[in-house]
Design brief:
Keywords: Amino-acid biosynthesis, Aminotransferase, Branched-chain amino acid biosynthesis, Pyridoxal phosphate, Transferase. This protein has about 400 residues and is of the alpha+beta class. It contains nine helices and 19 strands. Helix 6 links the parallel strand 10 and strand 11. Bound molecules: pyridoxal-5'-phosphate.
Length: about 400
């Protein structure tokens, strides 16, 4: 029945939308503010479970390639301006999407995504890490793309239910977790470069192990810093998690791999400002000009930097520990080289949900080989952050306010 109604309604919309220009009075979205009161609601969630014949075998936790396996169910929420906005959320068996070939997402990259994780704690309880942060970032990406906003709390409740249904997919291991990939796409079947009046928000779940191979975790990652390329610029979208930021990086990533390096260190501007490493925020730990230890990461004041949840958590922990100076400021490759030459560059590391914390051991920059001593210290700060964050995530630290328990 639901299926049938969807088909009818879908074809009705397909016929309607190319022919009608909505008057401004029908514009129910305000482009400048999040409108949680216009949201879908968890209370309207319907659930259709996969039959036993459709359930997939669970992969061995030792062989989890990032984002390769998906659980048995997914969450789908449609938005149709012509039907009054957000429709009721549905949990359905994991399935392919059917899209009109003119769907805006396929032409103009009207797409945004999030990445967060649920962990099976040492006490057996499943918890999500700071989902509220991902929800507000998702809403800010939606606004930037002219997609509809929603109540983050309602989406977290729906995700909670989805994880509950697929809970056996949350790995029984403190080296693995369940990755959530909320996504929103503009699905108007019209080629105009204009805001999409239909959208689909969906959430899929993938059990994941470590993002990096064991050797990379042990030896640190190597980076290519090539000033010819940049991923973001002032006034651009580098501070939003939108798909269009990532496609164009593949070419540069391949160049890094061809030179025997693992990731790209993204630079910006004439002075080769250090911005991000791959899809991670970057941190530098050094001895500053006053002889003090200082942790430095680029600030969120320009649109060059993605406001990472891991970044925010590391800054929070560092300020709470109060063992060294913590600064959000711009730094350039010249400073990295200078500190390194004076043996004052102690550590360089990336931070993001997928890898948590990833030490950097080598950077190739303008024909120079920079050996970064991150891995050579007995008690490196990157490891302190990694250990503390995993203790929080796997419930070793009890009842941490960052963790939301799945009922
Ligand atoms: C997702 C992402 C990060 C890390 O953000 P988290 O919320 O910590 O996962 C950093 N940089 C880029 C470019 C990203 O896409």
């Amino acid at each position: 029945m639901v299926q049938l109604r969807r088909q009818i309604c879908g074809s009705f919309l397909n016929q309607l939308q190319p022919n009608i220009r909505w008057s401004s009075s029908l514009q129910i979205r305000d482009k400048k503010v999040i409108q949680p009161e216009r949201s879908f609601r968890f209370a309207d969630l319907s659930v259709r479970l996969a039959g036993p014949e459709r359930l997939q075998p669970k992969p061995d936790v030792k062989n989890l390639t990032f984002g390769k396996y998906f659980t048995d169910h997914m969450l789908k929420i449609f938005y149709h301006e012509a039907l009054g906005g957000w429709q009721a959320p549905e949990i359905v068996p994991f399935e392919n999407l059917v899209l009109h070939p003119a769907s805006k997402v396929l032409h103009y990259a009207i797409q945004l995504f999030e990445g967060l994780k649920a962990f099976r704690g040492v006490d057996g309880k499943i918890r999500m890490f700071r989902p509220d942060m991902n929800m507000s970032r998702m809403n800010s990406s939606a606004m930037r793309l002219g997609l509809p906003t929603f109540s983050g709390e309602e989406l977290v409740k729906c995700c909670n239910r989805l994880i509950g249904i697929d809970q056996e997919w949350v790995p029984h291991s403190t080296a693995s977790s369940l990755y959530l990939r909320p996504t929103m796409i503009g699905i108007d079947p019209t080629l105009g470069v204009a805001s999409s009046e239909s959208a689909l928000l969906y959430v899929i779940l993938s059990p994941v192990g470590s993002y990096f191979k064991a050797s990379e975790a042990k030896d640190g990652v190597s980076l290519l810093a090539d000033p010819r390329y940049t991923r973001a610029w002032p006034g651009g979208c580098g501070n939003y998690k939108v798909g269009s930021n990532y496609g164009p990086t593949i070419y540069v990533q391949r160049e890094a791999v061809e030179r025997g390096l693992q990731q790209v260190l993204w630079l910006y501007g004439e002075d080769d400002e250090v911005t991000e490493a791959g899809t991670m925020n970057i941190f530098m730990f050094c001895i500053n000009d006053d002889g003090e230890k200082e942790l430095i990461t680029p600030p969120l004041t320009s649109s060059l930097i993605l406001p990472g949840v891991t970044r925010d958590s590391i800054l929070g922990l560092a300020r709470e520990w109060n063992q060294f100076k913590v600064t959000e400021r711009k730094f350039c490759m010249s400073e990295v080289c200078h500190l390194l030459s004076e043996n004052r560059l102690l550590e360089l590391f990336g931070a993001g949900t997928a890898c948590i914390v990833s030490p950097v051991s080598y950077v190739e920059y303008a024909g120079r080989s920079l050996h970064i001593p991150t891995m050579t210290h007995s008690n490196p700060v990157y490891k302190m952050f990694l250990n503390r964050l995993t203790d929080i995530q796997y419930g070793v630290v009890p009842d941490h306010p960052w963790m939301i328990t799945i009922e």
